[in-house]
Fold this sequence. Notes:
The complex is a heterodimer of chains A (121) and B (153).
Chain A: H1 3-25, H2 32-57, H3 65-87, H4 94-117
Helix pairs in contact in A: 1-2, 1-4, 2-3, 3-4
Chain B: H1 22-48, H2 53-75, H3 77-104, H4 125-146
Amino acid sequence: MSTPLVVVLTVVAVALAGVGALSTVLRRRIGTAHLAVAGVLELLLVVQGVLAVVRLVGGHRPAELTTFAAYLGSVVLLPIAGVLWARTEPTRWAGTVLGVAALTVAVMLWRLVDLWAVTGG
Amino acid sequence: MADSPLGGPAPEPTGTDTARGPGRVLVAVYGVFALAAGARAVVQLAVQFDEAPVAYLLSAVAAVVYLVATVGLARGGRSGRRTAMAACGVELAGVLVVGTLSLLDPAAFPDATVWSGFGQGYGYVPLVLPVLGLLWLRHLAELDATQGRPGPG
């Protein structure tokens, strides 16, 4: 896990939650701004996931490997699930739904960093 | 305005569907907690049950309650609402009782559960969530009453 990349990912995730909250406050549906930020988030998550898998194959072994793998897989799917579910919500709450997914991504990333650091045992 | 990057104007939520409008936000948060607590409980029970059986069984119970609440809110209707109401009630009681016990007798909870310290390990979301759930359900029931509907069939 690259901590600088996780910091960047966290900023993007919080930004997504921010535009989500903004559209709810302004009584709007989600638009291209949400999709663009969610796209950037997803792209970076995939990069981060590939880097982690490469290092796992290279021999890095987190102590709780199963939990780590489950988190790594889920975190990549979350923005997609969030966008799909927000798009079917016609009211201003679509942005907040997307924000929930984004904040969950941020929390899970830091949990991944913790899991990654504890090896052996 | 339809091309605004923030999206076009949104209609206000209509009807009394439990999973529409703010309800969908609740279902999303409940879903996240059901998944997270469920996965964690499975790992704890399978790998390290002997270390803290009370805490791990409580985690499993909490996971089931979150799952029931998620399904109840997502399905809606009369039975869905009743289910969600019961699950939110159990959840609120659980977080209050376990939160209090975990402060009075920390030795009984060597490994934290979702509800320890009133959910402080999870940003107190476990404490706030059942309250929001119950308020949402009450709001829908009031809407039904003012619109002269007998409630969802």
